[in-house]
Amino acid sequence: xxxxxxxxxxxxxxxxxxxxxxxxxxxxxxxxxxxxxxxxxxxxxxxxxxxxxxxxxxxxxxxxxxxxxxxxxxxxxxxxxxxxxxxxxxxxxxxxxxxxxxxxxxxxxxxxxxxxxxxxxxxxxxxxxxxxxxxxxxxxxxxxxxxxxxxxxxxxxxxxxxxxxxxxxxxxxxxxxxxxxxxxxxxxxxxxxxxxxxxxxxxxxxxxxxxxxxxxxxxxxxxxxxxxxxxxxxxxxxxxxxxxxxxxxxxxxxxxxxxxxxxxxxxxxxxxxxxxxxxxxxxxxxxxxxxxxxxxxxxxxxxxxxxxxxxxxxxxxxxxxxxxxxxxxxxxxxxxxxxxxxxxxxxxxxxxxxxxxxxxxxxxxxxxxxxxxxxxxxxxxx
Length: 382
What we know:
Blueprint: E1 2-8, E2 11-17, E3 29-33, E4 36-39, E5 46-47, E6 49-51, E7 54-57, E8 77-84, E9 93-105, E10 110-115, E11 129-134, E12 140-141, E13 150-155, E14 165-166, E15 168-169, H1 175-178, H2 185-196, E16 199-204, E17 220-221, H3 222-232, E18 235-240, E19 243-248, E20 255-260, H4 261-264, E21 270-271, H5 277-280, H6 310-319, E22 323-328, E23 340-345, E24 352-366, E25 369-381
Helix pairs in contact: 2-3
């Protein structure tokens, strides 16, 4: 069940879809919401991000006489928090939050898009956010220039600025020398966190801590570089409440309960990829722009890959496993990157015992009911 909490003009408005029973305090106003996904750019690692939805409301929400918000035309921005639950609000799971920005006004539908930021404070409704950029972190200006690499923010024109963060890695930067605590993956992410004002949690990072080297060919977003580094060395990372969590894809990040798949989950399909092309077609493409050999935006040499094929073999091991999507009506709170999920599938000539490392999740709030789908690579046995 969708629980959408809106905050506007000092009011708190609780909305949901029309599938919620009449008389329930969350009833109505949301006619459609896009699926919400959490997934990385690559199956074998990278930056785990939330795809934020478009939310469609019924015009009654903004009716000047009886509407809960009662402003027409609808306001340009509304604070919002999206939650999901299989039972009631006491066990609701936070999915995403941010600012709903008005997209379109129609006769029967009002569309908003949800915007948020993984590591910068988002201005509240009615506040003005001023962003300044700098090439060197000291000379600040408001207008964007191609050479800008740092930014800082101020709310309502106040004299107090947030800490400056470096959002671009200058072209020609050596990846190994950029991180002062040696040219290791955890060292790279420690430096990344210091530049972005984050705290690093590397408790589940690889104990091998592979060495990285190479250089970026042009000014590149730090998070794009981090996405490429994490993916190639089979790590995930995500940013939550000011902390960057770095997790080895093959580390066990907790266990979920055992269950008979016929009781709780729609029967899954196990899908294998072509064993060679999935590696050779994708493993070297660590960015999508430019025209250099190893990724069109970031130029690297063979030493970037550890001077051997071990990391390619790790990627191949992941991609050669069958992908499985487990869907259920009440799967809220089960997803955690790297968490192991076990099941017994009795639909086959012999029972299949499966286990999966969770790597992605999708939440659908449809007119025919909710569906939570957890995605990962499975190991099967009998």
